[in-house]
Design brief:
306 residues, alpha/beta, Rossmann fold, N-(1-d-carboxylethyl)-l-norvaline Dehydrogenase, domain 2, 48% helix, 13% strand, binds nicotinamide-adenine-dinucleotide
């Protein structure tokens, strides 16, 4: 397995700029490609912002790293030995993009998808070399969350997994292997289980929205960053877990649909911070203040945990 020297990121919306900044810091020549000129303009600002955060984290800068922006696919992929696809979460679009990528890269170039949950085998089904297709699921914001899920599909070769793991470790992140293809992979399954239970309790009037967030942030949230759920079982005692789980599991939400809180708000066009209102209300000033505060806190927490 040779060391990756040049990586292309195909699709530079929310995720691309942060991923690019992280890879460039590790000494990799990065090409950011998008079909939209506006996305490339926004990506320049996005990379600058991510770089400021990485400075705040005291992230080292290895020699040889660079970032180029472009809308010519052949140029972006020329000589690349690693590709990360980050186009919209749509199987048809991804399959077309993978076919285009495969027509421009060498036979042994690994092509990773940042998909949040589309099975890698489905993406690889339309590829001529499925053995080099692998999932590489970064968490948002990618320049701050130092864990990446690595997901082999049914036909992914060990070489593609090894190359992806090596890239993850080289940027100083922790790769976690998703050994079997399950919808949503693992991080999002855990998150969605938490959000389903939180919404159910709020919908049933058990707790207010603000108290729910305070309970999770100051209760399990901050603890989970230090002690994982399986470690926590040993800390609590398996006998205690067995006794509580034997009655509590039956009472937890197993709602297969989506909470009415969400469906009612989305029907009103209240989609969250992007529309100035969702679960909570926001003014432009409040959004700016929260953005700054949250970024600073995430940097401080990550520094104290590393
Ligand atoms: N946003 C998140 O929090 C997050 C987190 C982890 C993974 N992901 C996954 O990463 C991928 C990208 O997500 P995002 O939030 O950055 O999406 P986004 O919509 O913000 O950006 C996608 C970009 O892809 C571009 N694009 C569309 N078609 C293209 C094509 N044919 N070739 C090149 N570029 C093309 C668009 O112009 C856009 O700039 C998705 O699969 C998503 O599920 C997102």
């Amino acid at each position: 397995m040779s060391k990756v020297t040049c990586a292309a990121i195909i699709g530079t919306g929310t995720m691309g700029p942060g991923m690019g900044a992280v890879l460039a810091r590790a000494g990799i020549e990065v090409r950011l490609y998008d079909v939209r000129a506006e996305a490339l303009d926004a990506a320049r600002d996005g990379v600058e912002l991510a770089d400021r955060v990485l400075d705040g984290l005291d992230a080292p800068s290895e020699p040889g790293g660079s970032i180029a922006f472009g809308s010519d696919l052949a140029e972006a992929l020329d000589g690349c030995d690693f590709v990360i696809e980050a186009v919209p979460e749509n199987l048809e679009i991804k399959q077309q993009v993978f076919a285009d990528i495969e027509s421009h890269v060498a036979d042994d170039t690994v092509i990773a998808s940042n998909t949040s949950g589309i099975p890698i085998s489905d993406i690889a089904a339309a590829c001529s070399r499925p053995e080099r297709i692998v999932g590489m699921h970064w968490s948002n914001p990618p320049h701050l969350i130092p864990m990446i899920e690595v997901i082999p599909g049914g036909e992914t070769g060990q070489g593609a997994v090894d190359t992806t793991n090596a890239v993850v470790e080289r940027v100083g992140y922790r790769p976690v292997l998703i050994a079997k293809e399950v919808p949503g992979f693992v991080e999002n399954r855990i998150l969605y289980a938490i959000m389903r239970e939180a919404l159910d309790l709020v919908d049933r009037g058990v707790i207010s929205r603000a108290d729910m967030d305070a309970c999770v942030k100051w209760g399990i949230g901050y603890k989970l960053a230090v002690i994982g759920p399986l470690e926590l079982l040993d800390v609590a005692g398996l006998d205690i877990y067995e006794s509580v789980a034997s009655y509590l599991n039956q009472d937890l939400s197993n709602e297969a649909g989506v909470s009415s809180t969400i469906t009612e708000l989305t029907a009103q066009g209240k989609l969250g911070m992007k529309t100035d209102g969702g679960i909570y209300d926001y003014t432009p000033e409040k959004k700016q203040q929260l953005g700054g505060e949250r970024a600073a806190k995430l940097v401080a927490v990550r520094k104290s945990l590393s």
